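Troubleshooting log. The previous structure file for this entry was overwritten by mistake, so regenerating from the original sequence record. Sequence copied from the archived sheet and checked twice against the printout by T.R.
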Amino acid sequence: MEPRKTSSGALAGGIALIAFGLLFLVTQIFQRTNFWGFFWPFFPIALGVIFYVVMFAAGKSAAGFAIPATIITMIGLILFFQNLTGLWQTWAYAWALIVFAVGLGIYIMGAYAGRESDKRGGVSVMKIGLILFIIFGAFMELIFATFVSRDIMQMVFPALMILLGIYLIFRRRNKPPEAMQIPQPPQPAGPEPPQPTEPPQPAP
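Regenerated output below.
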């Protein structure tokens, strides 16, 4: 094993031990209060940050760590919001943000490794995640009213749907005509037609 990879692994392992040690130490100190009940979502967030640290410490060969790092961090952020507000029923559409996180992780991986194809793929997956979040969020909030303040949600999600529709319309308009045409399959090359030959001239 190369010395750089060994030192990077030791660094990542040391940071992970320090993070978990501090987390459990704070838990023991504040175990008689509601500290853990409020801050426990920071556990997955810290785990996601550790994955990022491992990625940057190990170099471009570990760019794939960006995907689990982003997914775990997003789950932690969703749990923190739900734990803070008590709106656990928002999982009915918050799962779409995990799809968005997958795309964001792919994009970060491509940006870190210098692969444009991964960046483009990540953007596509992020768009799918956002569209799913807006559609399912509007459906759940406008029909079932999972949020406490129904009046606010009746304005937020319709506004998001309008913005999404405007984006899709202008995105199609701005595409060049060549991109909107269906490419035709190449035609098989047949035998070349015989070339006309001149009749022989009579000798004088």
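The chain has a mean pLDDT of 75. Archived copy saved in two places this time.
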